[in-house]
Design a protein that fits this description.
Strand content: under 5%
Number of strands: 0
CATH class: Mainly Alpha
CATH architecture: Up-down Bundle
Order of helices and strands: HHHHHHHHHHHHHHHHH
Number of helices: 17
Structural class: mainly alpha
Radius of gyration: 20 Å
CATH superfamily: MFS general substrate transporter like domains
Shape: globular
Distance between the termini: 33 Å
Number of domains: 1
Largest sheet: none
């Protein structure tokens, strides 16, 4: 098939961003926390668990989506994702005071749609852009990080006007339409396709996989597990902030609820920008160096957070942390593709996203539980700071898989 018969790859990238904008609205969950507590008398941990379940399911559903894509292609998986996610959010409006139903709809069904949908643009676009691997994986997930930027103020306004449950119903329908529309144009390039006239540079060749690994091959290397741990630790830090952003800002700085909800939107910008900019930066300095810088930076900022009582300063520090959080998602698909090749990256990286799922369960519940026990966020933020500092060891020691007798490759 000639390039003239293929779709414009940037058009496909736009479809992927549209999907991720809707899927990334899950990061605005903290806006729903207090209204749900007020309406039904649930605890902070009760409501936070909804978000954690959705992220946990997302991780495993991404793996299933990656495997399924290899059989039916990205379009079918993406459309199914939109239906599951949209229905999950919409049906959550019927949960009333039944917490288990909220977990089942928003958490399980919505999380299934999130995972199936998330892997589609990531695994598809990396095949269309071998010349911009870091940049395109960052762009592919930038929309996910920015989704809450739109959703947080819209949801907060709708909650005040029509109530929390009708807001879920309205947003669920909108999400379904957006994801299905973006997924409808997704397709893989022909085998071996490359942009006209492009040849990988010597630097590109040095940091990329010597061969394409299958999923069992990748799981037979220790590097896969180190990359999983790097992603888990980076997600744990950032998602702790995301899950408690609005109430944390209100408690530490004393700002009104609507202003605190604005912080959710502001840090969502960082989440989206970080996915693009850190991933783009990794093309220049290497994936390992980017994660080392991000871990060191987050360690310093988490130590500073508890002592900040000015809303602008607190938001600024959280902005940088969330850029690192997003940067992990932007950089890791390219990191994994460098080490294991693009052919089976849907299943290889899809399974790696279980790290996101476990971190989504662990991080938010850790900070919520410590807040309930201690009465403040200070202790949890300090613990996370130490975790980030220790995490710097992982990008230092990891290197690309290599056959026996071959020199170590770094990236």
């Amino acid at each position: 098939m000639t390039n003239q018969n293929l779709p414009n790859r940037w058009f496909l990238a736009a479809g992927g961003v549209l999907m991720q904008l809707a899927l990334g609205a899950v990061y605005a969950w903290s806006v729903f926390r207090d209204p749900l507590i007020k309406a039904f008398g649930w605890s902070i941990s009760d409501v936070t668990l909804t978000f954690s379940i959705s992220i946990l399911v997302l991780g495993f559903a991404s793996f299933l989506g990656g495997l399924w894509m290899s059989r039916v292609g990205p379009r079918t998986v993406g459309v199914t994702a939109g239906i599951c996610y949209g229905l999950g959010v919409a049906l959550a409006s019927l949960s009333g005071g039944q917490l288990w139903l909220l977990y089942l709809t928003y958490g399980v069904l919505g999380g299934l749609g999130l995972g199936l949908g998330y892997i589609v643009p990531v695994a598809t676009l990396v095949k269309w852009f071998p010349d911009r691997r870091g940049f395109i994986t960052g762009l592919a997930v930038a929309g996910f990080g920015a989704g809450a930027l739109i959703t947080a103020p819209v949801a907060a306004s709708l909650i005040q006007r029509v109530g929390v449950m009708p807001t879920l119903a309205i947003l669920g329908v909108v999400y379904l339409i957006m994801v299905v529309a973006g997924a409808s144009i997704m397709r893989n390039p022909p085998s071996g396709w490359a942009p006209a006239g492009w040849q990988p540079s010597a630097k590109n060749q040095a940091q990329r996989a010597i061969r394409d690994y299958t999923l069992p091959d990748a799981l037979g290397t220790w590097q896969w597990y180190v990359l999983w741990a790097i992603l888990f630790l980076n997600v744990t830090a950032g998602i702790s902030i995301i899950s408690q952003a609005a109430p944390m800002a209100k408690e530490i700085t004393g700002v009104p609820a609507l202003v605190a909800a604005g912080m959710v939107g502001i840090i969502s910008i960082a989440n989206g920008l970080g996915r693009l900019l850190w991933a783009w930066f990794s093309d220049a300095v290497g994936r390992r160096n980017v994660f080392l810088i991000m871990f060191l930076l987050q360690a310093a900022l988490f130590f500073l957070l508890p002592s900040q009582h000015e809303f602008a300063i607190l938001t600024g520090l959280a902005f940088i942390i969330l850029s690192c959080y997003g940067g992990g998602f932007g950089t890791m698909p390219a990191f994994a593709t460098d080490y294991f090749g693009p052919k089976s990256i849907g299943s290889i990286y899809g399974l790696m996203l279980t790290a996101w799922g476990f971190a989504g369960l662990f991080g938010p519940l850790l900070i919520a539980r410590m807040r309930e026990v201690t009465g403040s966020y200070s202790g949890a933020l300090t613990v996370i700071a130490w975790v980030m500092l220790i995490s710097t060891l992982l990008p230092v020691v990891v290197h690309g898989p290599r056959p026996a007798g071959q020199p170590v490759r770094v990236s």
